[in-house]
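Researcher: Last one for today. Full complex below.
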Amino acid sequence: MRFFSTGLFRGLVAQVAGSVVGMAFVMAARVLMGEPAWSREPVIVGGMIIGALAFLVGVGSFNDWFKWARGKQVSDEITVDPNKPSWMRYFSVDYDHKVIGIQYGVVSMLLLLFGGTFAMFFRTELATAGIDFLNNEIFKVLLGYEPGPVGLLSGGAMMPNPEHFFNSLMSLHGIVMIAGILLGVGAMSNYLVPMLIGANDMAFPRLNSFAFWVNVPGALILLSSLLFGGFDTGWVGYPPLALRAPLGMQMFLFGVYLIGISSIAGAINVIVTILTMRAKGMTMMKMPIFAWAALATAVLQFSATQLIGLTFQLVMLERLLGMPFFDATAGGDPILYQHLFWFYSHPAVYVFILPGLGIISELLPVFARKPLYGYKWVAFSSFGIALISFFVWAHHMFVSGMSPYLRIPFMYSTLLVAVPTGVKFFSWAGTLWQGKIKLATPMLFVLGSIIIFLLGGVTGPPAATISTDLHIHDTYFVVGHFHDTMFGGFIFPIIAAIYYWFPKMTGRMYSERLGKWHFWLMFPAFMLLSNGMLLLGLQGMRRRVVAYDADLGFGPLHVALTIAGFVIFFSMILFAINIIRSARKGPEAKDNVWDSRSPEWQIASPAPLHNYAQPFEVVGEPYDYGLQNSPYVNMTPAGGSATASH
Amino acid sequence: MTEPQASSGHHAPAGASYATRLARNRLGLWLFVVSDAFVFVGLFIARMVLLGPNRPELLQGLGLAVTAMLLVSSFFMNRAEVEMAHGNRPAFLRNIMVTLVLGTIFLVGVVGVEWQLAPFGPSDGAEGAVFYSMTGFHAFHVFTGLILLFVVWNNGRRGLYTAEQHWGVEAAAIYWHFIDVVWMFFYVGLYLMGTPA
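Model: Here's the assembly. Have a good evening.
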């Protein structure tokens, strides 16, 4: 079993051992302080933190850094052991950005699968007005016991009642999807950015690998919250509820914290890579447009993420040591939490969508065979969105009890987001206009993204305007708006990106027939789902509730939404089948499948170990499709050994 | 967080020179500093929201003393870096040792003395929450800074740095100064602003 010699296996063993050691350590410390050794929350949290560190040591993320600290030289050469099967690279620490990108992508898809599965459970429950599915019988089937005091880990109530179980699934759906999206963003940035700008790797390969691997214990800890009683706060984790939720709350807080570390480290890497490692002749205004989107995303990630890291640590400290930051009865302020939380979490939604919007702009010219309309405006619009996003956070708090006069500026700053976003739509429409459109699967998903994101865009202003938000706040209208932006801004674009670069990653072609099935199942089902949510919200359906009054007439729509949810889930299974089967025995793809002008398609597929055997030179505009004699890159410039720095 | 040293023998596939990599490392570290600053800004905002015009009742003499220690340590850190840039290794080692000692005194002064003598515990109201979190987060950074200083001192002792190539020293210095600047704000926020509650 070669799996036992992978870094992942060593990391997992180390995490288990580290958790035990950490628990013992906290218990010993408690005994020294004259307290009883066992106290459930501090001991388990101590084990959780040490376990995560141990995973990173075990997997080997710190090896080179430890060597540096001891003054030893390390090799920067990426070498591949020919005696090991190539899949093993993906299960161990590897510094190749393409391997890391795929590692991110696979874990991202797994998390989306988990998040989707949770959604199927509570979506089924919502099909009926009462609590008919997530009741005591399903507990016995799923968890092997009925709700009540059981077990060492639970130390009381594991899942006290069906409502709590529903709330935990709903909360986990939100945060696991967000984790999956953040990893998907990492996948796109890591795999694409160096190849698009003509670099052979990221600026800091070790940091890059660390940034991926820290997600693994993060995701495991996040998912483990279900075993520790879950948490019923929704993905926002507002105190004071977060202070009273079961132990699973700590897994949520610390899991997200680890994934946040990944965001920060990854973003610093992306910024340095884009600013210092572009090919000769590639000025900022000649970069492939996705690089602009990745740069704007990274600027948000490396700065704002610290605030959620801090805030979640403060909640952990309040729960562990009783430091009353957010408890109004002891001098704290729950509104402070909301401000700090949304200062990250609003920019975060642009972190989710900006790379996706970059993918749309990147792929449209290829499939419309026309130049990207208004390149500079699109490039700056990403930065416009990023900049404005720092000044809009309190629009989530119109009903929170913060000072009412604060609502006005936040309403206007929020409406301002529509301007740079509108620039993007204008560019997409202009690019499609009179194009020779080829409806391959990636293009279908790009067009789907545009339509869905438009829906997300036009449902935003009603939620941002105080007078209307007071009515639709915390209803399914907001849920529908958010799902529109996430599907249009991330899910559809990343699916398009996976189909589009699949030949580059594997050297093989996916099945176009299954891809079309995927789209024509998913797109209508999603339109039904999100429009149904918007409609339900306008009718007054509250979000985050397990049951509703049957007399309100929500029933038929909820049934339709549940069916639509299952169709989406099924279409994603088709996607997984297509990808896995084609990666193993799909037909061989030619090198430049899409007749793209982009440099990564001018080299072999799959891309060689060091992307470009010799540095190329940028001699034209990136998106001059349809113009004769207007090459973007010269792959073999004279004196080809010139260095790649800009 | 960033690559502390460009190794001489092997280069990245792109064949980046020491100067190129130094520029990248500097950019990366400064980005990290900006990023990390957001944590401290967040803590300061929490202090302003929770305590407003009040401040915790603390030992002014002790606060002034540890602050002076940290400020002076930054001076010696700067001397250490300059001496290394001039290739004067013994002076570099001396200065960095002084920085280490002063930083340790600061850490002991805050965590070992002030935490014990403060008239409130971490769970005693907003004062406790603010004081222990601000000093705690900062002390953790000081602690990691001391580890970095020790690593740099140890590697310097073994002659790993030259006048031309000493990114590790520079990185430790930037980080140390950053911690110092943060404390300038925290000292004001905790010891000087407002009136004791």
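Chain A touches chain B through 56 residues (CB under 8 Å). The first helix of chain A runs from residue 7 to 32.
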